[in-house]
Amino acid sequence: MAHIELKGITKTFGDHVALKDLSFEIADGEFFVLLGETGAGKTTTLRLIAGLEKPTGGQIFIDGEDVADWGAAERDVALVLQQYSLYPRYTVRENLEFPLKSRIRRVEPAEIEERVARAAKTLRIEHLLDRKTDRLSGGEMQRVSIGRAIVRKPRVFLMDEPLSALDAKLREALRTELKNLQMNLGATFLFVTHDQIEAMSMGDKIGVLNNGQLVQTGTPQEIYRNPVNTFVARAVGSPPMNLISGRLAGSEAIADEGYRLPFDAALGTAVDARPLTFGIRPEDLFLESGAPGEARVHDVENHGVEKIVTLRTGNHFLQATVPAHTDLEIEETVRFSWDPGKVVLFDGESGISLRHAG
Ligand SMILES: Nc1ncnc2c1ncn2[C@@H]1O[C@H](COP(=O)(O)OP(=O)(O)OP(=O)(O)O)[C@@H](O)[C@H]1O
C-alpha cells in the first residue's frame, strides 16, 4: 500500500486560491478523512493526488517519491466519486472486469475472474453479477463503484463523498462496511466529506479544511476534545460545542449574559480580565436544581435515548443533552452548570484555543 505526503501545496484557478500551503501526511494503511464545507478544496486535493490536476506550488510524495512528473495511471490510485461512473448497459461483472482488461494492465483471464469474485464477495454483490447496472439501487451501484476500485488493487483509495447521495440508513450501513473493508484490505484511504458524523465515525485521523487551508489534523478524539479554534469547535460534534463569551475572575467564569459558573483555575492561566470564549460540549452542560446558571427552556428535541435541550439566556442559546426521562416544559425556568474540567478556553477575539496558542 502507500504513504502519502503533501508539502506546501497551493492551487490557484485564475486569481482564485483553492488551496493554500496545504501540508499533511497519510500513514500507510491509515483511514484519513478530509472534512470541509462546500468549496473548501476537498475535491481539488483529491484531483491533485490522483494526478488529474497539477499543483501551482508545493510537492506531493507517494511512498517518498515526488510524483510531479507521474501521470494519473502511474500513480496507481483509485478515485471513487459521489456519482457512480458505471457503464449502464453492461452487467455488474463486466463493469468490474473493465478496469482489468486495459492493454496496459495485461491481467490474465483467470486472475481477472478471481479478483472479480473476491471483490463481489467482499461487497456482497455476488447475486448481482449478471444484472445490468441500470437495474440497481443507489446503494448497489455505489458498491459496484467501490468494487471497480478494489479489483485494481490500487496503492491508495481516494473517495470523494461516496456516500452522500444515499439515504440515511444506507449511508450508515455503508459507513461501517467501508471502514471494515479498509481494515481488511489494510489499504490507505483518503476520504473526503462535508459530514462531520462520517468523519468522526470513520477516520483514524481527520484533517479539517477551511477555505483551502488545513486548520487542524488529529484523531477524532483530539479534534473533538481539543479543537484549535472556535471554527473547528463548531465543525465537529452534533449538536456543536457551546461557545460562551465572557471573562474569568479567579475561580469563576462570568458570562456576558451575567451568570457565573465555576472554573477550574488549573485549566487556564489567563486569569486577567481579557475577553474569552468558553467552549463546552452539550454533554458537559447539565441541568440541576440550585445550579448557578439560570435559563429558559427554548426547545426540546427527543432523540430516543436522550433529549437535546436548547436553553435561552438573554439573547444567547446553549444546548445540553439530557437523559430521555427528563421532563421539561417549553419556557420553564431551569438552573444549569457545567463540568469545569471540560471547558476549553478560546481567545475572545481571535477564537484560537489558549492551549494551542501555547
Ligand atoms: N477547474 C476549476 N476552475 C475554477 N475554479 C475551480 C475549479 N475547480 C475548483 N474550483 C474552485 O476551487 C474551490 C475549491 O473547490 P473544490 O471542488 O475542491 O471544493 P470542495 O471542498 O470539494 O467542495 P464540494 O464539497 O462542493 O465538492 C472552489 O471555490 C471552486 O469553485
UniProtKB/TrEMBL annotation:
<keyword id="KW-0547">Nucleotide-binding</keyword>
<keyword id="KW-0762">Sugar transport</keyword>
<keyword id="KW-0067">ATP-binding</keyword>
<dbReference type="InterPro" id="IPR003593">
    <property type="entry name" value="AAA+_ATPase"/>
</dbReference>
<dbReference type="Pfam" id="PF17912">
    <property type="entry name" value="OB_MalK"/>
</dbReference>
<dbReference type="InterPro" id="IPR003439">
    <property type="entry name" value="ABC_transporter-like_ATP-bd"/>
</dbReference>
<dbReference type="InterPro" id="IPR012340">
    <property type="entry name" value="NA-bd_OB-fold"/>
</dbReference>
<dbReference type="InterPro" id="IPR015855">
    <property type="entry name" value="ABC_transpr_MalK-like"/>
</dbReference>
<dbReference type="InterPro" id="IPR008995">
    <property type="entry name" value="Mo/tungstate-bd_C_term_dom"/>
</dbReference>
<dbReference type="InterPro" id="IPR047641">
    <property type="entry name" value="ABC_transpr_MalK/UgpC-like"/>
</dbReference>
<feature type="domain" description="ABC transporter">
    <location>
        <begin position="4"/>
        <end position="236"/>
    </location>
</feature>
<keyword id="KW-0472">Membrane</keyword>
<dbReference type="InterPro" id="IPR040582">
    <property type="entry name" value="OB_MalK-like"/>
</dbReference>
<keyword id="KW-1278">Translocase</keyword>
<dbReference type="InterPro" id="IPR027417">
    <property type="entry name" value="P-loop_NTPase"/>
</dbReference>
<comment type="similarity">
    <text>Belongs to the ABC transporter superfamily.</text>
</comment>
<dbReference type="GO" id="GO:0005524">
    <property type="term" value="F:ATP binding"/>
</dbReference>
<protein>
    <submittedName>
        <fullName>Multiple sugar transport system ATP-binding protein</fullName>
    </submittedName>
</protein>
<dbReference type="Pfam" id="PF00005">
    <property type="entry name" value="ABC_tran"/>
</dbReference>
<keyword id="KW-1003">Cell membrane</keyword>
<keyword id="KW-0813">Transport</keyword>
<dbReference type="InterPro" id="IPR017871">
    <property type="entry name" value="ABC_transporter-like_CS"/>
</dbReference>
